[in-house]
Every structure is written in structure tokens, then in C-alpha cells.
Amino acid sequence: MEFVKKMAGQEYVGFNNATFQSEKETGDRNFAIGYYMKEKKCFPPGADMIDALDFYFQLCSLEVTCESGSIMAATLANGGICPITGERVLSAEAVRNTLSLMHSCGMYDFSGQMAFHVGLPAKSGVSGAILLVIPNVMGVMCW
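User: That's the sequence. What structure does it adopt?
Assistant: C-alpha cells below.
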């Protein structure tokens, strides 16, 4: 949680246990994908698929405000340096990899349309929030 708070310039970041439980109980597609990946040996040696899914569901259950989410997006836009604190939170490589993943699959089933029509890395959340990064310019979060 501290890492995410650093990305958000120490603004509000919380955890919603009800969302976590709901995600675990209704995550059949995620479990199916996890088992498929396990069968294809996509997990590193020693990694546990259930633990990985549990961590994913925890990440899906983080709560942020528009302000804290936009600072997180701005940290990505600023090459991993939080614009509020000036602290390097992410390496340049981590930012590049994160933005590439956001661009290619951050909007789930609509990632291709988003990439084609908007052309910017974005991530949608369980709540309906969208985090958008304009590299070297700014970060945006809206519902």
C-alpha cells in the first residue's frame, strides 16, 4: 500500500474489502485464464497461481479519489517521478512497460478501440474509473 501511496503523492489510497470479496467470488473468467496460463507454464518457477490471482483481486480493490488517481497517472506521465513529492517511485523501464500494457490491454475488451481512436495509455477500473496518461504532459482520472 505504501508504494501506491508514493505514486499518489501521499494522497488518499484505501482498500475496499467488499470489492475484494466480490471480485474473488465472481472472478471465474480470471480463474479460467489463470488455470490456462498455469497449464501453459506461464508462471515463473515457484509462483503460485492462486496467490497471483489473490494479489490481482487486491489491486482491483484499491480505492482512490480523482485527485490521488490523477497524481498516480501524472507520476507515470512524468517518467516515474511523483510531481507532488519529486520522489522517483518507478524506474524508466517500469514506466515504459506499464504504459505499453495500459495501451495494449488497459481497457479490457475495448483496448483496441481505445488505442485506435485515442492513442493514449489508459486503464479502466472495476468502479468505472478511467486513468489516462499523456506521456511527458499530464495524467487524468475521471469517472
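The chain has a mean pLDDT of 97.
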